[in-house]
Write a structure and sequence with these properties.
By secondary structure, this protein is mainly beta. Helices cover 5% and strands 38% of the residues. It has one domain: Jelly Rolls (Sandwich).
Length: 156
């Protein structure tokens, strides 16, 4: 080996992402890690993982639900150490036609085939960590946007 450590490629510091604005603070958030498609072939077998940091209210586009052929976990974590189990914010989350208002740090288990998404960060008093993971190497979104969105979308 030419000085390269054997396991170095498994320490993932930078990944491609659709949501990585030039000024994350101004945009209100950014994907920090996005592993999909085996990191474009760089790490065979690497499963889907997405981690983002959200710092202000944010709506990530139109009402577009999707489902997968695999189970998924989605996690929202508050970072205020004075209230470690609270989001210190308010997040709107959809599963099928049901709207949920999240105010506590939580993980959501999404069984395969269940339509879910979007989410809206209505209130962010301290940064919120968003994470999604699944035991699959390729993440896809197979459903068209709903237009108009259902009543109550984006409204507390």
């Amino acid at each position: 080996m030419s000085g390269e450590k054997k396991w170095a490629k498994y320490i993932i510091e930078k990944t491609p992402s659709d949501f990585r604005p030039a000024d994350p603070k101004e945009a209100g958030g950014t994907n920090v890690i996005m592993i999909n498609n085996e990191l474009d072939g760089a790490i065979p077998g690497a499963t889907y993982l997405e981690i983002a940091l959200i710092s202000k209210p944010l709506r990530l586009g139109e009402f577009r639900q999707h489902a997968h052929s695999f189970d998924e976990y989605v996690t929202f974590l508050g970072t205020n150490m004075d209230k470690p189990f609270d989001l210190d914010g308010v997040v709107e989350w959809w599963m099928e036609d049901e709207k949920y208002i999240l105010t506590k740090s939580c993980t959501i288990f999404i069984p395969k085939g269940i339509y879910h998404y979007p989410f809206v960060f209505h209130e962010v008093n301290s940064p919120i960590v968003f994470m999604a993971s699944a035991p699959a190497t390729h993440y896809v979104e197979p459903r068209d946007p709903v237009d108009p969105p259902p009543a109550g979308y984006g409204v507390l």
